[in-house]
Design a protein that fits this description.
This protein has about 350 residues and is an alpha/beta fold. The chain contains eleven helices and twelve strands. It starts with a strand and ends with a helix.
Length: about 350
């Protein structure tokens, strides 16, 4: 019986179009290998270019159009002349929030064939996952400006931590550590010595949910020390959970220590699957190299693997990741950012070839 999945493609801006095309190509190679898998795609042109033409990042009924799909596969959004807060609040954040994608999943894993900038650290040292709360916290658009343009100019921005929001992200993190972790260890980021209301609240619920998972070894670590430990002793981590802002910072640092933002994937997950989840590389749209065929599609291809995992296609995800790492390891089809001369499309073709050879 054929397994059908509907995918909403939003290539976005710049290199997003280039790399999402390669991810789709790899998914099609997996369909041929499997013989019983089929993806039905619908492409949406929502982007900064769309904004410049229409004054909005997506149509008024955009979320309604998306909600029936199994997954959303997003490229990159951003373009000179369109402020970042416009592109973010006009497309990405409405999707994440309205579809209750409250888990932002970011692997910090050194792939075979890549080298960490951290001296003396290898594949065994760099393999953990960061779970970022994705719907509230410090990015809860509550606040405002007063007296702009005067000597009394001021801004207020409020963080919001709810029991519902904190418990669900922590329970997801503890469950992951309990199920998949070799050491069953969870590290929670805090700053309760300086942020004296929301962070003690967060810490309280870390301890509460920990009582439901007594097999999980739990550490609560201040964010400044935790960032340093990402660099000095990354091998000590297994699952890291953090609030929206802290998770945002930690995940970019995590990407840097395994090769850079250009190879980093992310997943915005609605665990209950009441709404589609969204998979996106975290690199920018890089309009200066768009269409030149030199963008690295590793992150987009890895995102496709994470999407397969979310859909329950674990074996095919493993095939994708093995094929991707073989290409990186062999080094004959690397893009310029990795020291090679191959094009974006050549890299994707090589990953597809590795998949076909497994048939």
């Amino acid at each position: 019986m054929t397994r059908h999945y509907s995918i909403a493609l939003i290539p976005g801006d710049g290199v997003g179009v280039d790399v999402i095309g390669e991810g789709r190509k790899v998914l099609e190679a997996l369909c041929k290998l499997d013989g019983g898998l089929k993806f039905d795609y619908q492409e949406f042109d929502w982007s900064c270019e769309y904004y410049l033409k229409n004054g909005v990042m997506m149509p008024e009924n955009g979320l309604e159009q998306l909600k029936g799909y199994d997954s959303i596969y997003l490229g990159a959004v951003g373009y000179p002349g369109v402020p970042d807060h416009v592109s973010l609040w006009g497309l990405l954040l409405p999707i994440r929030r309205q579809f209750q994608q409250y888990i932002n999943l970011r692997p910090v894993k050194l792939l075979r064939g890549l080298k960490s900038p951290l001296a003396g650290k290898d594949l065994r040292d760099l393999d953990f996952i960061v779970i970022r709360e994705n719907n509230e916290g410090e990015y809860s658009s509550i606040g405002g400006r007063m007296y702009e343009g005067t000597a009394m100019d001021m801004a207020i921005q409020s963080a919001v931590f709810t029991r519902h929001g904190v418990e669900r992200v922590l329970r997801y993190a503890f469950s992951l550590a309990s199920r998949q972790g070799k050491r069953k260890k969870l590290t929670a980021a805090t700053k309760s010595n300086g942020i004296n209301h929301s962070m003690p609240f967060w810490d309280e619920y870390v301890r509460k949910i920990n009582s439901e998972y007594p097999d999980v070894i739990t550490e609560i670590t201040h964010i400044d020390a935790l960032a340093a430990f990402f660099v000095t002793k990354p091998e000590t981590f297994e699952v890291v959970v953090a609030s929206n802002l802290f998770g945002d910072i930690l995940t970019d640092l995590g990407a840097a220590i395994v090769g850079g933002l250009g190879i980093a994937p992310s997943a915005n997950i609605n665990p209950e699957k009441d709404f589609p989840s969204m998979f996106e590389p975290v690199h920018g749209s890089a309009p200066d190299i768009a269409g030149k065929g030199i963008a690295n599609p590793t992150a987009a291809i890895w995102c496709a693997g994470m999407m397969l995992d979310h859909l329950g296609e674990y074996e095919l995800s493993a095939v994708l990741m093995e094929s991707l790492q073989q290409v990186l390891e062999e080094g004959t089809a690397l893009t310029p950012d990795l020291g090679g001369t191959a094009s974006t499309w050549k890299f994707g073709d090589e990953v597809c070839q590795k998949i076909i050879e497994k048939g």
